[in-house]
Amino acid sequence: MENIKKSKKELIEENRVLKDQIIEFNKILKDLEKEMRKKIWLWMLLPLFGFIIFAFLLQKRKDSEKYAPALLNVKTEIVKNELKIKINDTAINNLEN
Protein backbone atom coordinates (compact mmCIF):
# COMPACT_ATOMS: atom_id res chain seq x y z
CA MET A 1 0.00 0.00 0.00
CA GLU A 2 3.03 2.26 -0.09
CA ASN A 3 2.19 3.13 -3.71
CA ILE A 4 -0.88 5.09 -2.63
CA LYS A 5 1.38 7.69 -1.02
CA LYS A 6 3.47 8.13 -4.16
CA SER A 7 2.56 10.50 -6.96
CA LYS A 8 1.98 9.38 -10.51
CA LYS A 9 5.29 10.89 -11.60
CA GLU A 10 7.19 8.98 -8.89
CA LEU A 11 5.51 5.72 -9.87
CA ILE A 12 6.36 6.22 -13.53
CA GLU A 13 9.98 6.97 -12.62
CA GLU A 14 10.14 3.88 -10.40
CA ASN A 15 8.78 1.77 -13.29
CA ARG A 16 11.49 3.15 -15.58
CA VAL A 17 14.20 2.26 -13.05
CA LEU A 18 12.75 -1.23 -12.55
CA LYS A 19 12.62 -1.82 -16.30
CA ASP A 20 16.26 -0.74 -16.59
CA GLN A 21 17.14 -3.21 -13.83
CA ILE A 22 15.30 -5.97 -15.67
CA ILE A 23 17.35 -5.21 -18.78
CA GLU A 24 20.55 -5.47 -16.72
CA PHE A 25 19.40 -8.73 -15.12
CA ASN A 26 18.62 -10.15 -18.56
CA LYS A 27 22.16 -9.28 -19.68
CA ILE A 28 23.56 -11.09 -16.63
CA LEU A 29 21.31 -14.06 -17.37
CA LYS A 30 22.47 -14.14 -20.99
CA ASP A 31 26.13 -14.06 -19.89
CA LEU A 32 25.53 -16.93 -17.46
CA GLU A 33 23.88 -18.99 -20.18
CA LYS A 34 26.77 -18.30 -22.57
CA GLU A 35 29.20 -19.42 -19.89
CA MET A 36 27.22 -22.62 -19.36
CA ARG A 37 27.13 -23.43 -23.07
CA LYS A 38 30.87 -22.87 -23.62
CA LYS A 39 32.02 -25.62 -25.98
CA ILE A 40 29.12 -28.01 -25.73
CA TRP A 41 27.60 -26.26 -28.76
CA LEU A 42 30.03 -28.33 -30.85
CA TRP A 43 27.73 -31.32 -30.22
CA MET A 44 25.16 -29.52 -32.38
CA LEU A 45 27.29 -30.38 -35.42
CA LEU A 46 25.97 -33.93 -35.17
CA PRO A 47 22.33 -33.95 -36.29
CA LEU A 48 19.88 -35.50 -33.80
CA PHE A 49 22.30 -37.32 -31.53
CA GLY A 50 24.33 -34.15 -31.01
CA PHE A 51 21.24 -32.17 -30.05
CA ILE A 52 20.26 -34.75 -27.44
CA ILE A 53 23.75 -34.67 -25.90
CA PHE A 54 23.78 -30.86 -26.03
CA ALA A 55 20.43 -30.62 -24.23
CA PHE A 56 21.53 -33.16 -21.60
CA LEU A 57 24.84 -31.42 -20.87
CA LEU A 58 23.24 -27.98 -20.77
CA GLN A 59 20.60 -29.13 -18.29
CA LYS A 60 23.29 -30.79 -16.18
CA ARG A 61 25.22 -27.51 -16.05
CA LYS A 62 22.08 -25.52 -15.18
CA ASP A 63 21.48 -27.85 -12.24
CA SER A 64 25.09 -27.69 -11.04
CA GLU A 65 26.01 -25.98 -7.77
CA LYS A 66 28.04 -23.42 -9.70
CA TYR A 67 25.23 -22.03 -11.87
CA ALA A 68 21.92 -22.91 -10.20
CA PRO A 69 22.06 -20.36 -7.34
CA ALA A 70 23.13 -17.55 -9.67
CA LEU A 71 20.38 -18.34 -12.16
CA LEU A 72 17.80 -18.57 -9.39
CA ASN A 73 18.84 -15.23 -7.88
CA VAL A 74 18.76 -13.39 -11.20
CA LYS A 75 15.41 -14.85 -12.23
CA THR A 76 13.96 -14.07 -8.78
CA GLU A 77 15.01 -10.43 -9.06
CA ILE A 78 13.49 -10.20 -12.54
CA VAL A 79 10.17 -11.56 -11.28
CA LYS A 80 10.21 -9.21 -8.26
CA ASN A 81 10.79 -6.21 -10.51
CA GLU A 82 8.06 -7.27 -12.92
CA LEU A 83 5.65 -7.65 -10.00
CA LYS A 84 6.55 -4.18 -8.70
CA ILE A 85 5.95 -2.76 -12.18
CA LYS A 86 2.50 -4.37 -12.30
CA ILE A 87 1.66 -3.00 -8.85
CA ASN A 88 2.85 0.46 -9.88
CA ASP A 89 0.81 0.30 -13.10
CA THR A 90 -2.28 -0.56 -11.08
CA ALA A 91 -1.60 2.35 -8.73
CA ILE A 92 -1.12 4.70 -11.71
CA ASN A 93 -4.42 3.56 -13.20
CA ASN A 94 -6.15 4.09 -9.85
CA LEU A 95 -4.72 7.62 -9.64
CA GLU A 96 -6.02 8.40 -13.13
CA ASN A 97 -9.56 7.23 -12.29
Write the layout of secondary structure elements.
Blueprint: H1 8-37, H2 48-62, H3 68-96
Coiled coil: 1-35
Transmembrane segments: 40-58
Keywords: Coiled coil, Membrane, Transmembrane, Transmembrane helix
Question: What does this protein structure show overall?
Answer:
With 97 residues, the chain is mainly alpha-helical. It has one domain. The protein is built from 3 helices and no strands. It has helices spanning 8-37, 48-62, 68-96. The mean pLDDT is 87.
Over the alpha carbons, how many angstroms does the gyration radius reach?
19 Å
Largest sheet descriptor: none
> Helix amount, in percent?
over 70%
Q: Give me the strand/helix succession.
A: HHH
* Count of individual helical segments: 3
Number of strands: 0
Q: What share of residues are in beta strands?
A: under 5%
The shape is elongated
Keywords: Coiled coil, Membrane, Transmembrane, Transmembrane helix
Coiled coil: 1-35
Transmembrane segments: 40-58
Brief description of this entry?
The chain has 97 residues and is mostly helical. It is built from 3 helices and no strands.
Keywords summarizing the entry:
mainly alpha; 3 helices; 97 residues
